[in-house]
């Protein structure tokens, strides 16, 4: 870990001086646009299977009010069924132009608005206002997964569903886990706060949802230090 820190010393100095974060916020959407496109090609079947369940969650309005948490570039839009009214939330305002492009390519959806806010503080959204919340590759980089899941429960109506797809830590004691520990301090800066060793399944199991279903998937990219993924849903 010390060797990696020394090799990436300029990056850590920039972060210490407050110069890195603004730069990261600017370039990160472009990086995600490339990675999510490749990821969608690998995970298309699984994503379609997961998000096909949204069809049966129509609210009182006759449509599905859907919040995408940490929406990024809108890579999930193509998998949502027609009739969804999509609200997007992300703390990085630089994603908005990518969202506009994604919505223009997915006319089967109704785009509501883009909220610039962290997942831990969604005060701009009313209690029980959402039928569905979608969270993909987000809980790895938030400050507090516990607070985010509390906010998710608040904005979901009773019977509403959180759909998730998150990467988690490698098994403790494995070589892969050791490398995650070595790389994590540097990876957090490269990945805009992404933590490699989170046990996110525990946060979901402890969040007091009435039902949690999840399955594990191997990582889509073997050349990245991110570990296995968990995919599933949690019902309020």
Describe the protein in words.
The chain has helices at 2-7, 9-16, 20-51, 96-104, 145-155, 175-190, 200-205, and strands at 64-69, 84-90, 110-116, 130-136, 156-167, 211-217, 229-235. It is an alpha/beta fold. The protein has one domain (1-235): Rossmann fold (3-Layer(aba) Sandwich). A seven-stranded mixed sheet has the order 3-2-1-4-5-7-6. Helix 5 links the parallel strand 4 (130-136) and strand 5 (156-167). The longest helix is centred in the N-terminal third of the chain and has 32 residues, at 20-51. It is globular and about 55 Å long. The relative contact order is 0.14. One of its GO terms (biological process) is methylation.
CATH fold call: Rossmann fold
Low-confidence stretches: none
Count of strand segments: 7
**Largest sheet: number of strands, sense, barrel closure:** 7 strands, mixed
Helix content: 25-40%
Element order: H for helix, E for strand: HHHEEHEEHEHHEE
How would you write the strand order of the largest sheet?
3-2-1-4-5-7-6
Tell me the fraction of residues in β-strands, as a range. 15-25%
Mind telling me the CATH superfamily name? Vaccinia Virus protein VP39
The CATH architecture can be named as 3-Layer(aba) Sandwich
- How many distinct helices? 7
Oligomer: single chain
Keywords: Methyltransferase, Signal, Transferase
GO molecular function: S-adenosylmethionine-dependent methyltransferase activity
Domain Methyltransferase type: 67-164
Organism: Macaca mulatta (Rhesus macaque)
Offer a quick outline of the entry.
The chain is of the alpha/beta class and 236 residues long. The protein is 37% helix and 22% strand.
